[in-house]
């Protein structure tokens, strides 16, 4: 019997709560859950379901600049799309359910599970300040280009 594969694209963001990115993080979290449910339903039909959850990627010139100015661990975790694609395909063919490419992306995921809420909150707030600072430099304003849920 032939083996078939489904590869869904989520994000490392799907594992976290991110202020000002609620819809994005929520949709990526949905993809994790959806893919997991499909995996259980389809494995008896010889269909393997994987979901890839990359961290930051250099997909545009603006994002490449932003990623280069990120804090240490976030800067180290950035990958190029070609790297992510190669890892995702290799792991999908190994029938891995959840694929988190990159050493530092896995470190970030583990740290999120073991750090106390207060420390996670400080890290998130620090990252938000960096993003707002970048937007002020770029646009002269820290306002987001899209509405944010309160």
Describe the protein:
By secondary structure, the protein is mainly α. The protein has a single domain (4-115), classed as NAD(P)-binding Rossmann-like Domain (Rossmann fold), CATH 3.40.50.720. The chain contains six helices and three strands. The chain has helices at residues 22-42, 61-68, 72-77, 81-93, 103-114, 117-139, and strands spanning 4-9, 47-52, 98-99. The chain has a three-stranded parallel β-sheet with strand order 1-2-3. It starts with a strand and ends in an 11-residue tail after the last helix. Residues 144-150 have low confidence and may be disordered.
**CATH fold naming:** Rossmann fold
Major sheet characteristics: 3 strands, parallel
CATH architecture name: 3-Layer(aba) Sandwich
Report the uncertain regions. Answer: 144-150
Q: How many angstroms does the end-to-end distance come to?
A: 51 Å
**Top CATH class:** Alpha Beta
Count up the helices.
6
Structural class: mainly alpha
The proportion of residues forming helix, as a percent range, comes to 55-70%
Looking across the biggest beta sheet, what order are the strands in? 1-2-3
The named CATH superfamily: NAD(P)-binding Rossmann-like Domain
Number of domains: 1
Secondary-structure element order, N to C: EHEHHHEHH
Radius of gyration over all CA atoms, rounded = 17 Å
Number of strands: 3
Task: Please state the overall shape, judged from the principal axes of the Cα atoms.
Answer: elongated
**How much of the residues is beta strand, in percent?**
5-15%
